[in-house]
Design a protein that fits this description.
Layout (H helix, E strand, L loop, with lengths): L7 H29 L9 H26 L3 H16 L18 H22 L3
Helix pairs in contact: 1-2, 1-4, 2-3, 2-4, 3-4
Length: 133
Amino acid sequence: MIKEEIKVAKVLKAALKGGLVAAGVNIAWLYVLEFTIGLKDLPQGFPVAVVISSILPIFLGGLLYAYLAKNLQKGRLLFLIISIGFAVLSIFPSFQTTMADGNPAPHNFAVLTVPMHFFATLIGLYFIIKKSN
């Protein structure tokens, strides 16, 4: 019951490229907001966290896609459902009033981070599904 011929290395290469593109888009979004709405008071090292948080989930998503698409008849559909579910769930911490380190969240933090989650999801899905086949 193999759905499609999947080359894991090709999927992971596409996922890594997607993660790098998503990181670039998210960093650009960060600086656009800094210059347009004066977003300030971000935690030290926040751009590094943005880069890692853009690349790592997409790369791990590539692993999941390779497994699901190779082993399940509806693996691609299941991957899409899981990915969209994770994207929706990932935005909830953006609305918290405190950061993970206990400091108050910067003003307009959700305006910064919610689009980042959707940028990364859409870019990741495109690269993983379209560029790996």
